[in-house]
């Protein structure tokens, strides 16, 4: 779904009268929200906006039947383990953290952007290349991720009707 387009139009209207950009027409709305239902019944929500003034936030959230994690700022609630929102996540990182993060945390903090995740992703990519391992992301993953933009455009142009994400693996994702 796409909202009305108002933000860019208003910015263009504030330009000098002889500026040709004032005549531009924009098809996309100020904010686009895509809902994706996976083959396994999970729901993913992706929101995209480049127009609205708002504070920086990654708005990451993972919800499950037994807990919820929200990021930036990080907070966690686990049924039966946390009373309310837990903001000191060190004990959870120690217990549940991925081995790559545990191994690379200090170097990543010194060397990588986005809290070290850039460093860890690049480190893992190079490790796979050096050791002849299959990459963590395949061409099929890239196709599935990349198709969301044209599929969102198609959905919006059809009045926000659902559209099917193609199975680029022809069913091989199951195995």
CA(first)-CA(last) distance: 33 Å
Q: Beta-strand percentage?
A: 5-15%
- Order of strands in the sheet with most strands: 3-4-5
The level of helicity is: 25-40%
The total strand number stands at 5
The computed structural class is: alpha+beta
In N-to-C order, the SSE pattern is: HEEEEEHHHHH
Quaternary arrangement of the chains shown? single chain
For the CA atoms, what is the radius of gyration? Answer: 21 Å
Poorly predicted ranges: none
Mean pLDDT: 90
Largest sheet entry: 3 strands, antiparallel
Total of helices: 6
C-alpha geometry: globular
Characterize the structure shown.
With 175 residues, this protein is an alpha+beta fold. The chain has a domain at 56-88. It is built from 6 helices and 5 strands. The chain has helices at residues 7-13, 90-96, 99-111, 117-131, 139-146, 148-157; strands at 32-37, 43-48, 60-63, 67-71, 75-78. The strands form 2 sheets. Strands 3-4-5 form a 3-stranded antiparallel β-sheet, with no helix packed on it. Strands 1-2 form a two-stranded antiparallel sheet. The longest helix has 15 residues, at 117-131. It is globular. It starts with 6 loop residues before the first helix and ends in an 18-residue tail after the last helix. The mean pLDDT is 90.
């Amino acid at each position: 779904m796409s909202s009305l387009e108002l933000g860019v139009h208003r910015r263009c209207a504030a330009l000098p009268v002889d500026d040709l950009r004032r005549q531009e027409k924009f098809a996309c709305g100020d904010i686009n929200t895509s809902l994706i239902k996976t083959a396994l019944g999970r729901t993913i929500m992706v929101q995209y906006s480049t127009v609205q003034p708002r504070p920086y936030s990654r708005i990451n959230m993972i919800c499950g039947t037994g807990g919820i994690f929200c990021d930036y700022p990080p907070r966690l609630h686990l049924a039966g383990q946390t009373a309310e929102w837990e903001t000191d996540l060190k004990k959870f990182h120690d217990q549940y953290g991925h081995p790559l993060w545990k191994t690379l945390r200090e170097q990543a903090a010194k060397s990588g952007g986005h809290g070290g995740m850039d460093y860890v992703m690049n480190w893992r990519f190079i490790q796979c290349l050096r050791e002849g391992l299959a990459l963590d992301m395949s061409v099929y993953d890239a196709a599935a991720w990349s198709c969301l933009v044209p599929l969102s455009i198609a959905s919006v142009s059809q009045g926000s009707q659902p559209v099917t994400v193609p199975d680029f693996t022809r069913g091989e994702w199951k195995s």
